[in-house]
Amino acid sequence: MRRQKGFTLIELLVVVAIIAILIALLVPAVQKVRGAALRAQCANNLKQLGLAAHNYHGTNKTFPPGLYQMKFPSAPQYRGVSSFVYLLPYLEQASLFQTWDMTNPLNNTAGGPNARSAAALSILVCPADVVPQNPTTDSNGLWYGMTSYGGNGGTRSYDPQFATNDGIFAVIGPGSQTAPNGAPIRIADVIDGVSNTVLYGERSHYDPNYDSFIAVYGGQGGVAMNPLGSVGAWGISGGRLAAGDVMLSAFAPINYTVPASYANKSNLNPPVKKASDFTYYADRRICAFGSQHSSGANFVLADGSVRFIADSLPLSTLQLLCVRNDGGVIGDF
Question: Whole domain around residue 248: which residue ranges?
Answer without folding.
Answer: 38-322
